[in-house]
Design a protein that fits this description.
Layout lengths: L3 H20 L73 E4 L1 H6 L29 E2 L2 E2 L1 E4 L2 E2 L15 E8 L14 E7 L8 E11 L8 E13 L3 E13 L6 E16 L2 E14 L10 H6 L1 E4 L3 E6 L2 E7 L5 E12 L5 E9 L3 H4 L5 E6 L6 E4 L13 E17 L2 E17 L5 E23 L2 E23 L23 H5 L58 E18 L3 E17 L14 E20 L2 E12 L28 E15 L3 E17 L11 E19 L2 E15 L1 E4 L18 E4 L2 E2 L6 E10 L4 E10 L2 E2 L7 E2 L2 E11 L3 E8 L18 E9 L1
Parallel strand pairs: 4-7
Antiparallel strand pairs: 1-6, 2-3, 4-5, 6-7, 8-9, 8-41, 9-10, 10-11, 11-12, 12-20, 13-19, 14-15, 14-18, 15-16, 16-17, 20-21, 21-22, 22-23, 23-24, 24-25, 25-26, 26-27, 27-28, 28-29, 29-30, 30-31, 31-34, 31-35, 32-33, 35-36, 36-39, 37-38, 39-40, 40-41
């Protein structure tokens, strides 16, 4: 619930903005951003020209670097094309939008997408803090990534090591992407990166190096990086290039994790005449890194005091309607004795397995059919409290991940007339990851995408009933082709030293999957009925393993593809090939009605076609060859916004967006829930009708021209998360929708009165709840021999249940000042209140703060920065299982030539 104090804060903020609109003198008000800037021979105060002036050079984006030095402004000055395709002054964008400027890209410490919370109140502060997270979270949910207005092929989390090498600025947009971008799976918000542009005027370049060290008892760990960036005209004003290369050697704060990568970026621009632009860019990256598994067994004592429940966990095996557990000794090895367990379902829907009577020989029960591990419990006689460091995680350095990515873009622009522009954007993406994990898990993903979008951008000027109307439009067609092949080697439950049953206090090098089960599991080429786990009886799910030679990591020891973990006739949870295609027709319009009103209207009709199949199958298991299905689904979307400008420097707006998206993470990981249970593996059309509805009202004001800019908004959005049939339901039964309701208030301020001093403020209040939905409901972990660790994520039904890992109030403040001598200081401060780590609130992460300090010396040609992050060495948490890093120090040197 929102407190009265926060209500008063919101009211006072809104009144302050409105009062400023009626009291500030004209001398400090900004020019109207809704029309093009006056021509050079126009006197101040004269009306703007009746038509938009034609450009001498057509550019890929409205912003390019043309000065002798980088832009030094932290104010959002660049027009935004990340919404409608055509540039719109940021003050007139009817949505919460923030910008990361070139100056901030060059000089700020941006180590992960979590740092984007410094620039936008819509970015959730605590999510995405892992260094390998690919996308930030917006307003409590995972966002999407775009590059020059085209959706990238990227996974949401554990995508690859974070790099900004190809980019020089970005727009952070809250809410779903506009109709021109085609359907996606993430409607909470997105980042639109603007790539580095060629230099058409003169040669330029820069060289950047960084070194660092972790504190908090971790000793010295490499945090070294180097980047070189050069560009020059080949034919001045006609043909130019830009090249950038970055290499990184980074040892994470968390144990046994490191990143090694090389990233190449090149751009080529051609201007054959003043009305034509052709641009190409290509990025290639090779990444050698380790997935960070963090901690598990989250208790309040672990969060508050770093006390972990160490020791082995006991598996629960279901055979028919009976449940058994082997009796373990202190080392976790089975003694040969067994006990029967009693299944209990609590009032909250969570499952418990109480210890039952001892049984000497369950073989007579288990030999009748294969058993299934359905969970694990912590035996209080074996588990003991163990103090651990915040950096202790589940990582074993013997299990690396290799990722290769390619992004190629070409954009053609032709100005037919000064008010009519044709744009064609063609993008190719390739994502290949070869990953093992320290539980015997293997994952191989190869995904490709081709997207082509044709846009006709036009501008008209006319009158209706004496009212002057300036009409911008963008209409066209887009097609996206996205195949993905995914080989997995896993089981129904995550065995071994991953998951909730890992002995964190043990030696991960000496503790592996085979020693846990007491049997050689890999490789296995038997039938589904072959006994493989001699200590724990028979486990179903072990279909014939078919080696896949693509694995360069453990192809000889770990099978590349299997049907393990899937029942016969189930698609999408093990090995699969998917092909998804979208065709979209769209039309977006902005009508400036006189001098006070702006109406934005957009509509899109998309047709999604998807086909999924099993790329390999076992001839020994009936029905495996038939694992395939396809579906065609229309996905309509529309949006409408009305803005009111009582004065030129103040804009108030209301926006409504209705978006039909594809459920799940479809970019590079197409294993979303797509099947209808028990119906020949037909894809479920409901999963392609994931609806998001956003209502947002807000205001933007440039209170002091080119010095002070502020925003305020209130929003309410519903987002579909998952769709599933109730247990035992027929295929035509109504699905259960996992709908989240996200409501909040956001405020931002940017102040830069002089070139060398700037301040930024962000504040957000977020209330996120699950509505009449099924969802994963973590429960407290207790060493009581009854609490089922896997049952801690059992799907239960909740009504208006608070979402976990999302604080209600978060805020950030940064300030930078440079003295005339060249020395300067920059401080970043972020704070949040407490939040729940479990849906019943039994485990609570307390409020905390983080303070970073940069000391720099800057001259026109070079900049030296001493970076101290988390200077007070706070031990905050990013969710219950992710302790954030302690203090660290680094040195960065940049030189421009």
């Amino acid at each position: 619930m929102k407190t009265p104090a926060s209500n008063r804060f919101h009211l006072l903020t809104a009144l302050a903005v409105l009062a400023a609109g009626s009291s500030l003198p004209a001398s400090v008000r900004a020019d109207d951003g809704t029309t093009p800037a006056p021509a050079a021979n126009t006197a101040p105060g004269d009306p703007p020209p009746a038509t938009a002036p034609s450009s001498n050079v057509v550019t890929l984006e409205p912003y390019t670097v043309t000065g002798s030095e980088n832009d030094t402004s932290t104010l959002p000055e660049r027009p935004v094309s990340a919404l409608y395709g055509y540039p719109v002054p940021i003050q007139d964008v009817p949505r919460s939008v923030a910008q990361i400027t070139p100056e901030q890209f060059d000089n700020d410490v941006i180590n992960s997408v979590n740092d984007y919370a410094q620039y936008s109140p819509a970015v959730s502060l605590l999510t995405g803090a892992t260094i390998n997270a690919g996308t930030p979270y917006f307003r409590g949910s995972q966002g999407d990534l775009y590059q020059n207005g085209v959706r990238l092929l990227t996974r949401g989390t554990n995508n690859r090591p974070f790099t900004l090498n190809p980019y020089e600025s970005a727009d952070l947009v809250a809410g779903p992407a506009s109709v021109i971008f085609g359907p996606s799976a993430r409607t909470a918000g997105y980042v639109n990166y603007i790539t580095k542009q060629p230099y058409f005027d003169e040669e330029r370049g820069s060289f950047n190096v960084g070194i660092g060290q972790w504190f908090d008892g971790e000793g010295y760990k490499l945090q070294d990086s180097a980047q070189i960036d050069v560009g020059a005209p080949i034919i001045p004003g006609k043909l130019a290039f830009r090249l950038s290369y970055e290499t990184d050697t980074f040892d994470s704060y968390y144990e046994n994790t490191n990143d090694r990568y090389n990233n190449f970026f090149g751009a080529l621009g051609w201007r054959p005449n003043s009305t034509t632009a052709v641009d190409f860019n290509l990025e290639y990256g090779h990444y050698d890194w380790v997935v960070d598994n963090f901690q598990n067994r989250v208790t309040q004592n672990l969060i508050d005091n770093g006390i972990y429940l160490a020791g082995p966990s006991t598996p629960i095996i279901q055979v028919g309607s009976s449940y058994y557990s082997p009796v373990l000794n202190e080392s976790g090895a089975p003694t040969g004795a067994w006990i029967k367990r009693t299944k209990v379902t609590g009032a909250n829907g969570l499952t418990y397995y109480n210890a039952g009577a001892a049984t000497k020989n369950p073989t007579s029960d288990t030999t009748a059919g294969a058993g299934t591990i359905v969970g694990y419990v912590l035996d209080p006689s074996l588990v003991h409290p163990e103090p651990i460091s915040a950096s202790d995680t589940l990582n074993d350095p013997a299990y690396p991940t290799y990722t290769d990515t390619i992004n190629f873009q070409t954009r053609f622009k032709k100005e037919i007339t000064e008010n009519f522009l044709l744009v064609n954007s063609l993008t190719y993406g390739r994502y290949l990851t070869d990953s093992t994990s320290n539980g015997g898990f293997f994952n191989y993903i190869l995904a490709n995408s081709i997207e082509d979008r044709i846009e006709a951008q036009a501008r008209w000027f006319y009158k209706i009933l004496g009212l002057n109307i300036e009409h911008d439009s963008n209409s066209g067609f887009a097609f996206r082709w996205e195949p993905s092949t995914n080989f997995k080697d896993s089981e129904n439950t995550p065995y071994g030293p991953t998951g909730d049953f890992y002995n964190l206090a043990g030696n991960p090098l000496a503790f592996n999957r085979n020693s846990f089960f007491g049997a050689t599991v890999y490789p296995f080429t038997g039938l589904a009925t072959t006994p493989v786990l001699t200590n724990f009886g028979y486990l179903k799910g072990f279909w014939q393993y078919l080696p896949v030679p693509q694995s360069t990591i453990a192809g000889a020891t770990t099978p590349g593809g299997s049907a393990a973990g899937t029942a016969v006739g189930t698609l999408g949870t093990a090995d699969y090939y998917t092909l998804e295609e979208w065709g979209s027709v769209f039309s977006q319009h902005t009508l400036k009605l006189g001098t006070h009103f702006i109406l934005d209207l957009g509509i899109r009709e998309s047709l999604a076609w998807a086909h999924a199949s099993n790329p390999i199958y076992s001839p020994n298991v009936a029905g495996n060859s038939a694992l395939s299905g396809s579906v065609r689904v229309p996905e309509p979307s529309y949006s409408a916004s009305l803005s009111y400008k009582p004065v030129s420097w103040l804009t108030a707006y209301y926006t409504f967006d209705y978006v039909t998206a594809t459920n799940g993470n479809t970019s590079g990981a197409v294993g979303f829930s797509t099947t209808i249970a028990g119906v020949a593996n037909q894809l479920d059309p409901y999963n392609f009708k994931s609806v998001s509805q956003l209502g947002e009202v807000g205001a933007k004001a440039e209170l002091i021209p080119d010095k002070l800019f502020t925003t305020f908004d209130v929003y309410r959005q519903t987002r579909d998360s998952t769709l599933a049939l109730p247990n035992g339901a027929a295929a035509n039964a109504n699905p259960i929708e996992d709908i989240g309701l996200f409501q909040g208030t956001e405020y931002s301020l940017r102040y830069q009165p002089i070139k060398t001093f700037s301040v930024g403020v962000n504040y957000t209040y977020l209330a996120a709840t699950n509505l009449n939905a099924t969802f994963s409901a973590p429960a407290p972990i207790v060493a009581d021999n009854s609490t089922n660790l896997l049952g801690a994520t059992t799907a239960v039904k909740g009504v208006n249940t608070r979402m976990i890992n999302l604080p209600h109030n978060t805020g950030s403040l940064w300030a930078s000042y440079q003295f005339p001598t060249g020395f300067g200081l920059k401080a970043d401060y972020s704070v949040h209140d407490s939040y729940w780590a479990t849906t019943n609130g039994a485990i609570n992460v307390p409020g905390d703060y983080d303070l970073d300090l940069n000391v720099f010396y800057a001259r026109p040609r070079y900049r030296i920065t001493l970076v101290v992050q988390n200077i007070t060495n706070q031990h905050d948490h990013d969710g219950g299982a992710t302790p954030l890093p302690g203090a660290n120090v680094g040195l960065r040197v940049s030189y421009r030539f």
